[in-house]
Write a structure and sequence with these properties.
This protein has about 140 residues and is an alpha+beta fold. It has 4 helices and 11 strands, in the order αββββββββααβββα. The longest helix has 11 residues.
Length: about 140
């Protein structure tokens, strides 16, 4: 019964996730991605795996590949059902507060897929950044 409480069982504070980037319904390789939450930042080249710190806060994934496009997605974490039951039964919910702060009983989806927006052509990008002011 004690094994269900993440605080008591010393559940791992880290988790491995796999990141994939998709553009126009096809997976794109060699995409640089930055993953961030309130506990840190991690870098991975998608498709790839990285070990991150668990947290109750969302995990934001920002990806970019020169000439291809960019992406940004947020993934929420979910409480682990066994840890939640253990916290309610053993500690009357007190362990839930501790686990929420430490992130021990929370986890992100194991596979994260970000949808990339295509990069603008250079001529279109230059036109959108042009300053419309007269030069004297």
């Amino acid at each position: 019964m004690l094994g269900a409480c993440a605080t008591v069982s010393d559940a791992p504070l880290q988790q491995q996730v796999e990141v994939h980037a998709v553009l126009d319904y096809q997976e794109v390789g060699g995409v640089g991605c930055l993953l961030t939450n309130n506990l840190g930042r991690w870098f991975v080249v998608a498709p790839g795996r990285v070990t991150i710190s668990r947290s109750a806060e969302p995990l934001v994934v920002s990806c970019k590949k020169e000439g291809m496009g960019t992406a940004q997605e947020a993934f929420g974490s979910r409480p682990d059902a066994m840890s939640l039951m253990g916290n309610v039964i053993i500690s009357a919910g007190m362990g839930f507060a501790v686990d929420k702060y430490s992130g021990a009983s929370w986890s992100y989806p194991a596979n994260l897929t970000v949808l990339m927006a295509p990069a603008k052509p250079a001529a279109e990008l230059a036109a959108s950044q042009r300053v419309e002011s007269p030069v004297f």
